[in-house]
Design goal:
Blueprint (H helix, E strand, L loop, with lengths): L3 H32 L2 H19 L5 E7 L1 E2 L2 E2 L1 H11 L9 E4 L8 E4 L4 E6 L2 E10 L12 E9 L3 H22 L4 E4 L21 E4 L13 H16 L1 H7 L4 E7 L6 H12 L2 E4 L8 H9 L5 E5 L2 H9 L13 H15 L3 E7 L7 H4 L6 E4 L5 H12 L7 H11 L4 H8 L5 H65 L1
Parallel strand pairs: 9-12, 11-14, 11-15, 12-13, 13-14
Antiparallel strand pairs: 1-8, 2-3, 4-5, 6-7, 7-8, 9-10
Bound molecules: adenosine-5'-triphosphate and magnesium ion.
Magnesium ion binds next to α7.
Length: 500
């Protein structure tokens, strides 16, 4: 009889033999890949793999899942996700891999070459992915007949974890990667064409919206605005996106409304682009003046996708049109902006997810007070004239500088004294590639603005002075009239009493 120690050592010998053969198998595959000429390669590799499996599979604790490219006529979602996810697992030790670039995607993508193996670790489980491409002997030139699949191998004790967790994990990761690499689109109703690529879940955009890639490079870092306000907006967006379950629980449409207000050129449109780039949400630019009926509005809104931002710019200019009857009959069917919000709530509480609606205006004081009531727009965001902190952001953006010993202090002092928009400063910073002349240009602009403001003040005061004088003159005149009236009355009373 063999002792327990002997059995253990025999088992460990067998396993180490297996491990070394398994390693040799990997090595063989990789060598075969480099050395054996193409017509024989797949044949030899597959014969060798079969022999290996025959002798050693019974000893192995490894199992292999085959992830086919297609399931019947449709693509296999696990395959698609693995393809994307495994890009990130291609490391410097990977000897061969494919590179490609799709014009509609932003980055170069890497993918596995035939027979290449990559490894992954999930919760301390070691996993091996191999990409297999089978080209049938008799139809080498037919692209259709190639068979692609991944072989996912791991220790069989982790079967449940892999099935119930790991595969979901890679699908989620792939979704995030896809989102990251996706171009944000700008939809408008009058766009003559659409460059829709489109992984938009069967949404029908035809005839209603046309789109172009947004290609607006602005991000939150590049926005010159109050840093606390910026933080607040980012936090608000993050909270909104994570709260799907919460919105469902309280029975509200998963929607958030922002009102952006401030003078022209303070970055309202830029902030919208930054939000879209941050969330990877498409933008729908809705011109209300182009809508002639509630039915059209409903159709337009229904043809927007989830995870999107609907923008209605310059609502004070849209307001007169909003107060007219959108549909001639019935006459009480008026569409106001707050009515529009209610309408959207109703529409999206059933079918819309992750919707953001943004109104912009240059004149908050001109808009319908009903819209400013709490609960209408969730956040009112004031985009202000440029501040010293805002200038720092712009200088870094446009000139890549953090400081200038002489000109930064001068500019920041002047900025506190005048009203200048980030757009005006940006425009001057762009006029010269060299920092110093560009900054001098900004100083000139600010000095000119200061002089203009002073002149305006003087004029205002002078005008006010004339008005004061005019008022005094008027008062004196009135006094004279009153006096003469009084004396006239006195005299006439005296005349009467004499006559009596
Ligand atoms: N806060 C800002 N931060 C960075 N750049 C800005 C900012 N504001 C304006 N700019 C620059 O000025 C340009 C015009 O700004 P933008 O169109 O965002 O202003 P706006 O507030 O939407 O103006 P309007 O009220 O006229 O629509 C932008 O493309 C950008 O280059
Ligand atoms: Mg704008």
């Amino acid at each position: 009889m063999q002792s327990f120690g002997e059995v253990q050592s025999m088992a460990s010998n067998i396993f180490s033999a297996y491990a070394s053969v398994a390693a040799s198998m990997m090595l063989f595959r990789s060598l075969a890949h480099d050395v054996i000429p193409e017509p024989l390669k797949s044949y030899i590799i597959s014969a060798f793999t079969r022999i290996f499996s025959y002798f050693f599979a019974p000893l192995s604790t490894q199992i292999t899942m085959v992830v086919d490219e297609n399931t019947g006529m449709t693509r296999n979602q696990i395959y698609e996700s693995a393809e994307i996810y495994l890009h990130t697992k291609i490391n410097p030790n990977t000897k061969r891999f494919k590179v490609s670039k799709n014009p509609k995607k932003k980055s170069i993508s890497l993918s596995m070459e035939k027979d290449e193996v990559v490894t992954d670790t999930y919760n301390n489980i070691e996993l091996t992915w191999q990409f297999v491409l089978e080209v049938p002997e008799n139809s080498k030139n037919s692209f259709q007949s190639e068979k692609r699949y991944f072989e996912l191998s791991f220790d069989k004790q982790h079967r449940e974890t892999v099935l119930n967790e790991y595969l979901h994990f890679i699908m989620q990761k792939a979704k995030e990667l896809r989102e990251k690499d996706r171009n944000v689109k700008l939809y408008t109703r009058d766009c003559p064409y659409s460059d829709s690529d489109d992984d938009d879940g069967g949404r029908n955009v035809s005839g209603v919206w046309g789109s172009v890639n947004l290609d607006h490079p602005v991000t939150f870092e590049k926005l010159a605005m109050n840093p606390q306000l910026k933080e607040q907006i980012i936090d608000d967006l993050d909270r909104f996106v994570r709260r799907k379950e919460y919105y469902k629980k309280v029975g509200k449409a998963w929607k958030r409304g922002y009102l952006l207000y401030g003078p022209p050129g303070t970055g309202k449109s830029s902030l919208i682009a930054a939000m879209a780039n941050y969330l990877k949400f498409d933008i729908y630019d809705l011109e209300l003046t182009s809508l002639y009926s509630n039915a059209e509005l409903k159709r337009t809104l229904l043809s927007t996708a989830n995870r999107s931002i609907i923008v209605i710019e310059d609502i004070d200019c849209n307001a007169p049109m909003l107060n007219r009857d959108v549909e001639p009959e019935p006459s009480d069917n008026k569409l106001t902006l707050s009515g529009l919000l209610n309408f959207m709530d109703g529409l999206w509480s059933n079918c819309g997810d992750e919707r953001i609606i943004i109104f912009t205006t240059n004149h908050k004081e001109k808009i319908d007070p009903a819209l400013l009531r709490p609960g209408r727009m969730d956040m009112h965001i004031h985009m202000s004239y440029c501040t010293p902190a805002g200038f720092d952001v712009l200088a870094l953006n446009y000139l890549a500088i953090h400081d200038h010993p002489r000109l930064f202090p001068e500019i920041k002092d002047l900025i506190q004294e005048v009203q200048v928009t980030p757009a005006e400063i940006a425009e001057h910073l762009m006029r010269n590639e060299n920092a110093e002349p560009a900054l001098e240009g900004v100083v000139d602009l600010l000095k000119r603005k200061k002089a203009e403001a002073n002149e305006e003040n003087i004029n205002k005061k002078a005008k006010a002075g004339i008005e004061v004088k005019g008022e005094a003159k008027k008062e004196a005149k009135m006094e004279k009239i009153v006096k003469s009236l009084k004396s006239f009355r006195k005299n006439s009373r005296r005349g009467k009493s004499k006559r009596m």
